[in-house]
Write a structure and sequence with these properties.
The protein has helices at about 15-20, 25-30, 50-65, 70-80, 85-115, 125-135, 140-145, 165-180, 185-195, 205-235, 245-250; strands at about 40, 45-50, 125, 155, 160-165. Helix 3 packs antiparallel against helix 10 (about 205-235), helix 4 (about 70-80) runs antiparallel to helix 5 and helix 5 runs antiparallel to helix 10. The model is unreliable at about 115-120 and about 240-260 (pLDDT under 50). The two termini are about 35 Å apart. It has eleven helices and five strands; from the N terminus they run H-H-E-E-H-H-H-E-H-H-E-E-H-H-H-H. The strands form two sheets. The chain has a three-stranded antiparallel β-sheet with strand order 3-5-4. A two-stranded antiparallel ribbon has the order 1-2. It is elongated. A hairpin with a 5-residue loop joins strand 1 and strand 2 (about 45-50). It is mostly helical.
């Protein structure tokens, strides 16, 4: 059941800001960005907000932890333009990214599961075939080498880089960690630990932290979904106008020029 909160009371910018631990300038910035609907204006040009704006702000702040600031902004902007279906697609894409990140973590754990010291005689490979195997450019492997993550030897005859089986193991691990969002400087000490320990034990705390971050993100998405659903339920129904985006624009007093400082 929809509730129209547009006429449910007047709020000053400071009221909206204090209720959400923000500055009044932050509230104005969110309005200017289309994250919350446009405010109505008094005859003197002062902004007045309603509980609908408060609901929009709560939804945005709840979306940020799970979806990130940029994607949460896109979701709210799209909804406030009246394109709810497009906003739901953005949310679906965010969930798909989370699922992909979970699969990346599983791949990292699989890559680490059987790590053990690898004898040199198990075979060597060159930079081109290794890059093709991973679906990356040879320049990426050279970048990892400059960062000290992998140290292939050079063929004395041709000068080409030659990756031993142990080097390939390290490259595979680096590739998975990069897909998991880790920076090169974060990966470097992990590679050192793997080389010295030959196993997964030194990385268990990192994997636990990774799991915890994904779980927290998933829970945050649930909280964001609840807040967004509440906001959608409070917005005017489509039959109230050509679109909910039209409702946003009608909240502005067309007879008054904008006053960004009020």
């Amino acid at each position: 059941m929809r509730r129209n909160l547009q006429s449910g009371g007047k709020l000053r910018p400071v009221d909206l800001a204090r209720a959400h631990g923000l500055s009044t300038q932050a509230v104005r910035n969110y309005e200017a960005a289309g994250i919350i609907p446009a405010a109505a204006r008094t005859p003197h040009g002062y902004r007045t907000y309603t509980p609908l704006h408060a609901q929009a702000l709560r939804a945005f702040l709840a979306l940020v932890p799970g979806h990130g600031h940029q994607r949460a902004t896109s979701i709210m902007q799209t909804i406030n333009r009246g394109a709810t279906e497009d906003a739901l697609q953005i949310i679906d894409e965010s969930h798909a990214q989370l699922l992909d990140d979970r699969r990346t973590l599983q791949a990292v754990e699989a890559a680490l599961h059987d790590l053990s010291p690898v004898p040199q005689e198990r075979g060597d490979t060159f930079v081109g075939p290794l890059a093709r195997r991973l679906g990356i450019r040879p320049a990426t492997l050279r970048k990892w080498e400059r960062a000290g993550l992998v140290q292939p030897r050079r063929d004395p005859q041709t000068g080409y880089r030659v990756y031993s089986a142990a080097d390939v193991r390290d490259v595979l691990l680096i590739h998975q960690l990069r897909r998991g969002g880790y920076l090169l400087e974060q990966i470097a000490p992990l590679i050192v630990q793997v080389r010295s320990a030959g196993g997964v034990a030194p990385l268990e705390s990192m994997l636990r932290d990774w799991h915890a971050r994904l779980s927290a993100r998933s829970r945050a998405m649930l909280s964001g979904a609840a807040a967004l659903d509440a906001y959608l339920g409070c917005r005017p129904a489509p039959e109230d106008g050509p679109s909910s985006g039209a409702t946003v624009s009608s909240a502005t007093n067309p007879t008054q020029p904008p006053h960004s400082s009020r």
